[in-house]
């Protein structure tokens, strides 16, 4: 509480001169306040003042003071708070999308594949190996263009490289596949419709078998059917045994009942049938209960004709995947490919598809490689055209036959057909091989000389002819070289033995084959010489024949001799075929539309300078 | 020979099972986080012991805004890679794994979120490699494999697990995951959130 003396209302009043009241009192008061000493009275004069004392009522003090209270806003204005929304939000939004894939063990009704325990390696990779990237570029599957389901596309992309599967020792291989073969497997595996059109000898069979085996192991294929020409059934069995020893295979054969059981009741994951039986067993094969996850057609040119019964049955098989194998998808005309495609991707290519669209529309489903492209270390193939003069006896017979034949054709006038021309060609070609009257043959003379060289060097040779008869005659003349025969008249049951003997018996230097029987599917890479005793109509078939020897596994140069008699029908056919071969190679190299490789009707008539128009008029 | 069995020794009715083909005991997860102009996105592949895909998951892209970048600061990347993308990918996957391998250093923090070991496949020239060398599992010329520093016991566990795998190259599956991420994005599965 403050001192009363300090209060202005109670401050003592002292009357003094003007001078005294200026500064001193304040000082004295100050002193009194501080020291409590008695006031010193200065020498002053006292003045009497009549100070009447009275009191007045102060109304204001008579009543209670009522404080006037004013409220004051002490709360501060709320701060401006801006909520963080929209692009400034603090939380993260994330969504997850996922796909589950069927693991091999989850696949329902997957046929059990035996494990080759003896072959499986159990040595795990070391940690250092796990951390060392592989130097070889891995072979990965790519989703085909027509695969639209995202899950399937991702499943394809997420498959491990093929090398991993093989290196992982889950799938043991007898030999390491070539990189292009790995690419072929990666091409086939994700495709439901595919045409593997590698040149002969590059291993189409092996690529198809390994692809099938991997799909069986992955559980993506449970039932497969392989269709091949009858002579190739043993070859397929051998290849399956080599490349897929853990895959049980059943050959559909035997009497009708046995085949019915094989088609309808057998649980074998892989069935093998030839084209003839497929056609004959159409009722069994097309039964609604007979379904396949994969059908492989080997030598698929067998279904190149639309109306062919075999083609109809093949196209009607109940199947998920369709693979066709052929080195010659176009033997004669673009329609060959269209008809094969009707099996590979049914309904994709109409029959009236323009040729210039064909290559584009099939591009994603065809894989074709040629040896020059992928087998740089495959031994060389040297082709030599050997032009021979007819022997006098042959020459006389030839001239007579040709003269009579042409006269006959001219006499036919407008009734002439291509069949008439064919008959003359065949007769002349046979004379070019042998003169039946004298038995003379310039080709035989040359061949005997060549074979002596082949046998002396311990090598083996294959001789091809269009007909069985000259092969049998040749066999008589080449006895000293241990000839073996392999043609349509040799029973199927003996054919494998013939091939086995040719391979293993060092005294068997030569095998005589017909184009029709021996030109496809056989592995004869232990032979180094190929003789084309006469020429086939289509260079693609000749290539097939040559490639029995010039294929994977061949260690030495392959020498091919094509016998052509000078100034004969053989020369003229050869010129036409060579021209067409060059054209084909150019087009294939440019991936453009293919053309016919064989002789057309017009070209056949032209061999004898006959007008195609006259034939048309006759027709 | 009317009926010919290719392998006479194999009797279909007596094959005990797909032994050797069904070794699904070990399942591995491969986790990658990609950071590009579209933000962060994750891919997660579950394989069996020999690399076959069992499940694949992807996330939408996450693009941190300016505020998030400021507030999360240096913890942003580990948070997105492990707590956000890594965790959601592993948790949403139906297939359970015994080991997750990641090629993203920041995703190694996922180990704090899951019960099983997480290993980081680190390039040998990575700056963090030397800091975390205490939990080195193995190293080779190109890569090292490391466990999370807080979980030293994982080192032996991961070694044991990897001895059971038949994957021949731990870096290889990440190439598949990246390709599949591109494919999924191309086909519209991944759009920025």
Please tell me about this protein's structure:
The complex is a heterodimer of chains A (619) and B (193). Chain A has 619 residues and is of the alpha/beta class. Chain A is 39% helix and 12% strand. Chain A has 25 helices and 14 strands. In chain A, the strands form two sheets. Chain A has a seven-stranded parallel β-sheet. Chain A has a six-stranded parallel β-sheet with strand order 9-14-13-10-12-11, with helices on both faces. In chain A, strand 4, helix 9 and strand 5 (270-274) form a beta-alpha-beta unit. Mean pLDDT of chain A is 81; it is low at 15-35, 115-121, 587-595 and 613-619. Chain B has 193 residues and is α/β, with parallel strands linked by helices. In chain B, 26% of the residues lie in helices and 24% in strands. Chain B has a seven-stranded mixed β-sheet with strand order 4-3-2-5-6-8-7, with helices on both faces. In chain B, a hairpin with a 2-residue loop joins strand 2 and strand 3. The termini of chain B are far apart. The chains are: A alpha/beta (619), B alpha/beta (193). At the A-B interface, strand 1, helix 3, helix 4, helix 5 and helix 8 of A face strand 1, strand 4, helix 1, helix 2 and strand 7 of B. Strand 4 of chain A pairs antiparallel with strand 1 of chain B, so a sheet runs across the interface.
Structure characteristics:
heterodimer, A: 619 residues, alpha/beta, seven-stranded parallel β-sheet, six-stranded parallel β-sheet, 25 helices, disordered C terminus, B: 193 residues, seven-stranded mixed β-sheet, 4 helices, 8 strands, 26% helix, globular
TL;DR?
The complex is a heterodimer of chains A (619) and B (193). By secondary structure, chain A is of the alpha/beta class. Chain A contains 25 helices and 14 strands.
Return the average pLDDT of chain B rounded to an integer.
Answer: 83
The run of helices and strands of chain B is EEEEHHEEEEHH
Largest sheet of chain A: 7 strands, parallel
Helix content of chain B: 25-40%
Quaternary state of this entry equals heterodimer
Strand proportion of chain A, as a percent range, falls in 5-15%
Strand content of chain B: 15-25%
Question: What's the alpha carbon Rg of chain B, rounded to whole Å?
Answer: 20 Å
Globular, elongated, flat, extended or rod-shaped: what is the shape of chain B? globular
End-to-end gap of chain A: 146 Å
Describe the strand arrangement of the main beta sheet of chain A, using strand numbers: 4-5-3-6-7-2-8
Give the number of helices of chain B.
Answer: 4
Largest interface, per-chain counts?
A-B, 73 and 81 residues
Q: How many individual β-strands of chain A? A: 14
Shape of chain A: elongated
